[in-house]
Write a structure and sequence with these properties.
This protein has about 290 residues and is of the alpha+beta class. Helix content is about 25%, strand content about 20%. It has helices at about 5-10, 15-25, 95-105, 110-115, 150-160, 210-220, 235-245, 270-280, and strands spanning about 50-55, 65-75, 80-85, 120-130, 145-150, 180-190, 190-195, 200. Strands 1, 2, 3, 4, 5, 6, 7 and 8 form an eight-stranded antiparallel beta sheet that branches. Strand 2 and strand 3 (about 80-85) form a beta hairpin. The longest helix has 12 residues, at about 235-245. The radius of gyration is 21 Å and the shape is globular. About 30% of the residues are buried.
Amino acid sequence: MVDFSQLKKSSGKSSLEKLTAELSKLSDKQGDSKKDDRFWYPNVDKAGNGYAVIRFLPAPPNEDVPFIRMFDHGFQGPGGWYIENSLTTLGKNDPVSEYNSKLWNSGIEANKEIARKQKRRLTYISNILVVTDPKNPDNEGKLFLFKFGKKIFDKITEAMNPQFEDEKAVNPFDFWAGANFKLKVRKFEGYPNYDKSEFDKASALYDGDDTKLEKLWKSEYSLKEFLDPKHFKSYDELKTKLNRVLGLDGSSPAPKTKASDTSRDSGKETPPWSDDEDDDMKLFEKLARED
């Protein structure tokens, strides 16, 4: 068990180096949480613009990772909607991923398009402190869970691995050497965009007041909870639902998967879920801490 003094001892360069090293490792296979009051969501105006300042927090007590990666699927078929956590989150086989691979490997462009629409969605969950929330001032100074995607995760990665010599590497999850995150939301092509978001300069949270920091740390929500198997249906249950939603049980026509189709594409192409969710997404299995 890591106590608060050990957490503080690991702050700084050593912690950043270990986190960066682990961030370079990939998880071959790694869900979506239900909405509840623990989660914070940025609010936007009628134009789709929003602004807030948050602080990413260290891993909760007795946990090694300050965030978790989740995969889920959400799509509609002739038999209704399929909205389920993906077993790939737990490193297990998932019927949707298997079926999408079958569609993709058929070489039929129409099947590839179906696979793209059914690909797994990637999100992360972390503990945060809301520093500034103009739309909801009551949230300021409170602890929440925050779900975010690739754009924001890339900002975290860039902060830890700056591209230019005049930029100093920062561990965004560090109490003492981390930095506030200025979340800037704008509507772009009909969807929320976070490209303008950025980290502020490094500073100690609560001006380094250990009493306040330890209280906050001990109040953090468990992240491992979301990886509990109870939040995931079994492979057989998911496959039964998938067959019903897509009509693979014979209730409606299924997509062609044979190479004889005239729209077959002979060119080789990497499946989109491989590029977006594995190769570009670096997840550390364990956040090392000094004893």
